C-alpha cells in the first residue's frame, strides 16, 4: 500500500469517527478536562442560558456542571450530537487539548471495549448495592454462584464485588466496560454508569506511585491489620517487630510500615500493588479511601 492510499484511508476513518454520535462515556471522559469552561462550551453548542443557570444552582463541582450540560446537549440534539460538532465547539473555546483527547480515541481501542479492572469494580460496587442480584441476572451469572454469595450473609457492597470479580474471572477479556455499562443501564443504574465513565483514566492510576497523603488517608482503616498488610507487601518480620516494640497506636504503626515499604520499593511502590495487597487482607474500606 502506498503512502497516499494509507493517508486517504486514515482520513476516511477520521471522518467516520467525527460523524459518530457522542456517547455518555465520552462525555464523562472529557468533562473533567472542560471544568470551568463548561459554560462557554454550552453557549457554542447552543444550550439555553436558563438551563445553564439551573445547572449552576444545582451543582457545585465544575466537572458535574460540564457533565450535565453535555448530557442536555446530547438529549436535545439527538442524532445531531456528533463527535465532529463537539470537537469544533471545543476548538472554538480554545480547548484544543480536550478536542485532541476526544479525537485520539478514534485510533485507540474504544473505552467501551476495554476490560473492566478491579479498581473500577471497587469504585462502583457500593453504588450497585442491593441491586447486585438484578445485575447478576443481566450478566448471566450462574444461579449456583448467586446462592453461594447469598449464603455468605455479607453486606450488599461485598456481594456486588464478589459477583463482579467472578464475572471478570469467568469472562476474561470479554468482560468489557461496554457490556457492564449496558447491564447497569438495564437495571436503571445510570448514576453508576457515570461513575464508571469517569474512571476511564484509572489504568494509569494503578501505576502511579503511592504518596504520603495517600498513606495518611488509609492508616486508620488499616489499623490493627497493619502487620498482615506488611507480610503481603514483603516487609521483613524483624522490621515489623521493631515497629511493634515502639508501642505506638495502630495508625502510627501502619504509617511506619507503609513508609518503609515506599523507601524499600522506590518506583515499585505503586497504587496498583497497594490495592492488590489491601484486597488480599480484605480491607476494601481502605481501597475506597485510596480511590
Automatic annotation (TrEMBL):
<dbReference type="InterPro" id="IPR011029">
    <property type="entry name" value="DEATH-like_dom_sf"/>
</dbReference>
<feature type="domain" description="Death">
    <location>
        <begin position="211"/>
        <end position="291"/>
    </location>
</feature>
<dbReference type="Pfam" id="PF00531">
    <property type="entry name" value="Death"/>
</dbReference>
<protein>
    <recommendedName>
        <fullName>Death domain-containing protein</fullName>
    </recommendedName>
</protein>
<dbReference type="InterPro" id="IPR016729">
    <property type="entry name" value="FADD"/>
</dbReference>
<dbReference type="GO" id="GO:0007165">
    <property type="term" value="P:signal transduction"/>
</dbReference>
<feature type="domain" description="Death">
    <location>
        <begin position="117"/>
        <end position="200"/>
    </location>
</feature>
<dbReference type="InterPro" id="IPR000488">
    <property type="entry name" value="Death_dom"/>
</dbReference>
<feature type="domain" description="Death">
    <location>
        <begin position="23"/>
        <end position="106"/>
    </location>
</feature>
